[in-house]
Amino acid sequence: MQAIQRTALIAWPHASKGWGGCDIKFFEEAIGNHMVPFYICSTTRTMIVRRDVFQAIADPTRREIIHMLSLQSQNLSSVVNEFNVSRPAIAKHLRILTECGLVEVRAAGREKFFHAKLQRLREVSQWTDQYKVFWSQKLDALGKFLEQETTPRKKSKTTKNHKK
After folding, report:
1. Is the whole-model pTM more than 0.85?
2. Are residues 29 and 42 in the same domain?
3. Which of 9, 121, 135, 146 sees the fewest Cβ atoms within 10 Å?
């Protein structure tokens, strides 16, 4: 698969010349049915994947991990014990959550503890808020329509001439 290069000026907060002092180029590659953004450091030729919050919350296991870590910081073993999947699979989920900024890692001795950093979920909230008004109006209109359809209509009295 061929990656699509985009010209982009990337401002990195950590270094003036880019991540780790690299000149960085932005690419997008079609993986499945969506485009995945990533960066390549031209000096070291390493790929830096940038994930967004929407990718992270798309998976139900990751959503459950976020919920667990929002209640209490946990190490990898504690997280693995809560799921019926392999340790490498949970480690990959945690890596994805860390890459998009929903989880932070804190070292305590030999252990690494993961905790939720939920501020990035504001991005999702802001995106859904723009549709709340639209759908609220549509659902209210549907409710009124259904209410009118289910209320019995009064029959009009008509007088009929009966011959006897």
Report:
1. no
2. yes
3. 9
Res 49: pLDDT: 54
What total of structural domains would you count in the chain?
A: 2
Domain range for 15 is 4-49
For the sheet containing 4-6, what is the strand order?
A: 4-6, 24-31, 34-41, 47-49
**Across the chain, what does the average pLDDT equal?**
75
Q: DSSP letters along the chain, please?
A: -PPEEE------SS-TTSGGG--EEEEEEEETTEEEEEEEETTT--EEE---HHHHHTSHHHHHHHHHHHHS-EEHHHHHHTSSS-HHHHHHHHHHHHHTTSEEEEEETTEEEEEE-GGGGHHHHHHHHHHHHHHHHHHHHHHHHHHHHHSPPPPPP-------
Q: Which pLDDT tens digit goes with each residue over 30-66? A: 545 555 555 556 555 555 555 678 888 999 999 999 9
